[in-house]
Design goal:
Thrombin, subunit H, 6-stranded antiparallel barrel, 147 residues, two-stranded antiparallel sheet, globular, 2 helices, alpha+beta
Length: 147
């Protein structure tokens, strides 16, 4: 059934036009997600930034502007990673190095149960990364074939 839905979506993209800004590439990279949370400070009424909460996953596909991440949960601690106004710190393990990416979630969906278990697919838009990490990431993208 997922193949049928994917085939219909691909056909619609051909008819309506593909709105994606950058080509996607199949890539299975380990990814660590961290979510920094701000909690109200009881005494001052201000905000206290809490320690980053972490979640491990991997990429399904990547592009110059975004990532599709597979994770076992959409919650870290008691917080939804896909919540409004969330920024995720993502550590991607490229074959030759690790890079740090800041990204915002734009969509998510549950994955169907299979031999690997269940989880969620989270689509994120890249917000920023250092110039050095961007150079490494772009060089890695050039080694891949389009999805």
């Amino acid at each position: 059934m997922p193949e049928l839905i994917r085939a219909i979506a691909n056909r619609l993209r051909e008819i309506v036009g593909n709105r994606r800004r950058a080509p996607r590439y199949l890539a299975h990279l380990e990814a660590g997600l961290a979510l920094s949370i701000s909690l109200p400070h009881a005494n001052t009424g201000g905000q206290v930034t809490g320690q980053a909460l972490k979640l491990e996953g991997y990429t399904r596909d990547i592009s110059a502007t975004g990532l599709a991440l597979v994770v076992p949960s959409i919650r870290i601690g008691g917080q939804y990673v896909t919540g409004e106004n969330r920024t995720l710190e993502i550590i991607l393990k490229l074959p030759t190095s690790m890079i740090k990416v800041r990204a915002t979630p734009v969509r998510y969906s549950p994955l169907e149960e299979d031999a690997a278990g269940t989880g969620y697919l989270i689509g994120v838009q890249i917000v920023s990364m250092s110039n050095e990490d961007r150079t490494r990431f772009d060089a890695y993208l050039e080694t891949l074939t389009k999805a």
